[in-house]
Write a structure and sequence with these properties.
By secondary structure, the protein is of the alpha+beta class. 65% of the residues lie in helices and 10% in strands. It is built from 8 helices and 6 strands. It has a 4-stranded mixed β-sheet, covered by helices on one side. A two-stranded antiparallel ribbon has the order 4-5.
């Protein structure tokens, strides 16, 4: 059976992925730039052709013929300048392409890393080191986060906290019965589930509230908090 711990430790880190990816991007673009620039025509190619015409046609002495050769020479110079500007534009575009690809790579690695961390959090549950419920002020403090709750939401949380202290799991029916004071036969599961939903809404962040208040299939609801971390005041 393969050693999962050693396999996980050998997995490349995000920084290694970024470095390798950047090197690959730069390498590909450098090769592409070399191929492109090597296949571009020589900036002096036109001037060389015009010079050849001058040399091979030294008999052209008429005013119009000389004027034509001068125009050709000027066109060669213009062509050379234009091609040089094209080379510069291509170089700048390659720089921009490199920067954009590197930025995209970093963003992708960041998103993948964030998704992995969120998956780990979802798998292991939220780590609550302290949960303080203040009935008088109707405030619950989870770690360093403070939430102001309605009376109904506070009652639901208090019932769940007391059940967690007793290591119990409460169904929606039991929650509704304990809060309303009615016998369980006069309550229904949906009312308790509604109270849980409202409590989660008051806690704000959906992922955190879902992980804090776990729903155990066919059993009920329980706080994913160690009993020694709960304090009722």
């Amino acid at each position: 059976m393969p050693d999962l711990t050693s396999s996980a430790s050998k997995a490349p880190s995000p920084m290694q992925v970024i470095v390798v990816g950047m090197a690959a991007i730069v390498g590909i673009l450098v090769v592409a730039a070399l191929v492109l620039f090597l296949n571009l025509p020589d900036a002096n190619a036109f001037n060389m052709r015009v010079e050849r015409i001058f040399i091979e046609n030294d008999a052209l002495t008429q005013g119009g013929e000389i004027r034509l050769l001068e125009i050709l020479a000027q066109s060669g110079t213009a062509f050379s300048d234009t091609l040089a500007s094209y080379r510069f534009i291509i170089f700048v575009l390659l720089i921009f392409a490199t920067a954009l690809l590197i930025a995209a790579l970093v963003s992708i690695v960041f998103l993948v890393t964030l998704a992995r961390r969120m998956a780990e959090i979802e798998k292991s549950g939220i780590q609550v080191s302290s949960l303080v419920v203040s009935r008088d002020e109707r405030i619950v403090q989870i770690n360093d986060m403070e939430f102001k709750l309605t009376e109904a939401a506070l009652e639901t949380l208090s019932v769940l906290a007391e059940a967690r202290l007793d290591d119990d799991i409460l169904s929606g029916l039991e929650i509704e019965s304990m809060i309303s004071g009615k016998p369980e036969v006069d309550c229904d599961e949906a009312s308790g589930a509604t109270r849980i939903k409202r409590l989660r809404d008051h806690l704000g962040n959906q992922m955190i509230s879902e992980l804090l208040i776990k729903n155990i299939a066919r059993k009920g609801y329980v706080l994913a908090v160690e009993p020694n971390a709960i304090k009722m005041i």
